[in-house]
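so my prof wants the structure for this chain in the tokens format not the other one, which i didnt know existed until like an hour ago. anyway here's the sequence
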Amino acid sequence: MTPVPFLSIVAPCYNEEEGLREFCRRAAAAAYSVAGDAFELILVDDGSSDRTWEIISDLAADVPQVLGIRLLRNHGHQLASTAGLAVSRGERVLLIDADLQDPPELLLMMMPIMERGADVVYGQRTRRQGESWFKLASASLFYRALSRLASVTIPRDTGDFRLMRRRVVDILLAMPERDRFIRGMVSWIGGKQVALPYERDARFAGTTKYPLRKMINFALDAITSFSTTPLRISTWLGMISAGVAIALLVYTFIRWLQGETVTGWSSIMAAVSAFSAIQLICIGIIGEYLGRLVQESKKRPMFMVETIVRGSEHAELSVAFSEMSASDRRTALDAAFASEEPPRSQKNSRIG
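here's what i got, hopefully its the right format
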């Protein structure tokens, strides 16, 4: 059984071959500054198509603190993050992206805040470098709309970059939903959550993994996970449409009594199109919620791990790993590497 580390750093990776070694170097240096050798760096390969897994395997062989996880396919950022959190064992867990937009060195500022009693220390962006005006404008609109619609207070201009206590991570992992919005779920948990303002850097290398389509899907997941307001909006739209339809019917009847007929098919078609559009919007909103209920009812595994590597040893985890309790996950991890020697403290964790 390997010693339980004080700190776990979890980083989902998708096609990050160009900047992964630099991320590991900086993350390991930051972790070493606050925890010595008592940390683990968990790199989750989310079905990458480049050399990301090869690099992770090399890093795991060179650095005892690196633990690599390869998912069976691309599950998306939120489930890849969940997979890394499920494997983590540290009393403090830092969730961070591997693109170096969120500086790992901020860990040195987060840790003292947590030592003063915070349950969660999350990064709050004051500036975002290297991003287009459209990305900035759409992100601003999304966070402000979400703060209005959500049933819990979700801080604006925040991502998943945060340091969490073990109890918060365990509660987060006990939440069973598949369509996950981690920053909102952590806010829902509560406790003392403190913001750390910072300037977000541009990507160190590569391109964004969140094109417009994924951004829209992510926004829909966030809103439907934490708000029923769209359903109420559809109800009000239906009531307003019914009121307008009744008013038009009364108007048409009065004109008929006066011996006048309503001329022109364009006005009729416009009214029919408007009401049809409102109906389709309402059906679509209901369908979004219903579709999520269907996905949850299937109870498929949240994520599937192809292999896990520590040092030069590769192991496999049960398909049911994502559904296990915290204690069962730890037992499964210890069994996977039962023959492995504990990490050697004399081996420097600084990645060159």
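also thought this was worth mentioning. The mean pLDDT is 82.
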